[in-house]
């Protein structure tokens, strides 16, 4: 297998997402959840849920046309549960459909998965200095672990929903 075949994630464009504000009005997603242990999901559970979401979107022809604009975001409502939000173009029959509405401040960070709390702290500080208050966070990981290794970066976008 060649290196190109080993890479499944599109090349991430930092400038497209970093320090940007997104105003979403009922942006459509399909959602699934995975159990976690203190915010750490079982990798096999993520893969299974992602396959289900991907297959539902593909079957409904609801995938985002430009894959570099597609978002798979993680939100942890508790230490024992993570929600996966998979962006789609329309509601999908048989899926848990949801939407996100609000102003989301985006910041791109690079580091291991366990650095998320440090990045959230930095983002909180930055937004507080701008007079903004964070209500919640959603995280998009730009690369799967295999592609992060190949590209040499482990980018993530923190989407801070502000009030």
Strand content: 35-45%
CATH superfamily: Regulatory factor, effector binding domain
Number of domains: 1
Supply the number of helical segments: 5
Written description of the protein model:
This protein has 163 residues and is α+β, with helices and mostly antiparallel strands. It has one domain: Multidrug-efflux Transporter 1 Regulator Bmrr, Chain A. Helix content is 28%, strand content 40%. It has a six-stranded antiparallel barrel with strand order 1-4-3-6-7-5. The longest helix has 17 residues, at 43-59. The radius of gyration is 16 Å and the shape is globular. The termini are far apart.
List the helices and strands and how they pair.
Blueprint: H1 3-6, H2 14-17, E1 20-37, E2 40-41, H3 43-59, E3 72-78, E4 81-87, E5 96-110, H4 116-129, E6 134-141, H5 145-151, E7 155-162
């Amino acid at each position: 297998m060649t290196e190109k075949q080993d890479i499944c994630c599109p090349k991430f464009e930092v400038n497209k997402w970093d320090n940007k504000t997104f105003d979403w009005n009922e942006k459509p997603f399909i959602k699934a959840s995975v159990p976690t242990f203190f915010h750490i999901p079982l990798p096999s559970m993520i893969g299974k849920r992602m396959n289900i979401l991907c297959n539902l979107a593909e079957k409904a022809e609801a995938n985002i046309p430009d894959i570099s604009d597609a978002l798979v975001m993680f939100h942890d409502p508790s230490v024992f549960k993570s929600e996966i939000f998979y962006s789609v173009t329309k509601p999908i029959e048989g899926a848990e459909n949801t939407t996100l509405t609000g102003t989301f401040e985006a910041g791109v960070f690079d580091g291991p998965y366990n650095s998320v709390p440090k990045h959230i702290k930095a983002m909180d500080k930055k937004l507080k200095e701008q007079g903004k208050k964070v209500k919640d966070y959603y995280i998009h990981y730009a690369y799967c672990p295999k592609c992060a290794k190949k590209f040499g970066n482990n980018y993530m976008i923190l989407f801070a929903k502000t009030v």
